[in-house]
Design brief:
196 residues, alpha+beta, two-stranded antiparallel ribbon, globular
């Protein structure tokens, strides 16, 4: 099974981004926010993230340190990166290291697992990054016409709503596409939730 994520991790108390308008997850203790890259990335889809763009995003989402983490594993083989941006240092100091080192420098403290046989969890497991096999795991799932109760439609922008609907297809939304009706219906539902 693969693991392929690209996320920003910040301290919740240092967040400057409006969390009600961005897809995200919190660690079990509510101290850290995990934001999938595409929720804040403003470049073209598939475009590599140049260092300057990562620094710019970091400065828009947190007043403190920001960890940018990526994994690309399949069957135990692959790669990971952990990059830390610190605005309190000159030139928005940047470090590249392992994911656990970046999370440690961000302030994540390892948990002791309730099962003594397991012992201490690493930083990755402490904030439950293993719950996300890919960035699509951050987005609510839609099962045919049933919307899951955990779905937060009211917080989704039009582009995020389209991504949710078209996640399974590679094509872009085009006028006259039968899926356009699903988008319009979900948009009306979202707008109805906002109006209440």
């Amino acid at each position: 099974m693969g693991h392929n994520i690209s996320v920003f991790v910040i301290k919740k108390k240092e967040a400057i981004i409006d969390l009600s308008k961005v897809v995200h997850s919190e660690d079990p203790n509510g101290e850290f926010i995990i934001i999938p890259e595409e929720a804040v990335w403003e470049g073209e889809e598939g475009e590599e993230e140049p260092l300057d763009a990562l620094k710019a995003i970091s400065s828009k989402i947190s007043k403190g340190k920001v960890a940018y983490l990526t994994t690309d594993y399949f069957g135990g083989i692959g790669d990971q990166t952990g990059e830390l941006f610190d605005p309190s240092l000159p030139h928005y100091h940047y470090e590249s290291d392992s994911i656990n080192k970046a999370l440690e420098k961000l302030g994540v403290v390892k948990n002791i697992h309730p099962n003594p046989a397991i012992g201490q969890e690493d930083e990755f497991d402490t904030i439950r990054l293993g719950n996300f096999r890919s960035n699509s795991d951050f987005y609510p799932k839609v099962e045919k016409t049933k919307i899951t109760t955990s779905m937060k439609i009211s917080a989704l922008e039009d582009s995020e709503l389209k991504k949710l609907i078209w996640e399974e297809w590679e094509s872009e939304i085009k006028e006259g596409d039968p899926r356009e009706m699903v988008f319009k219906y979900m948009k009306m539902m979202r707008d109805g939730f906002i109006a209440k």
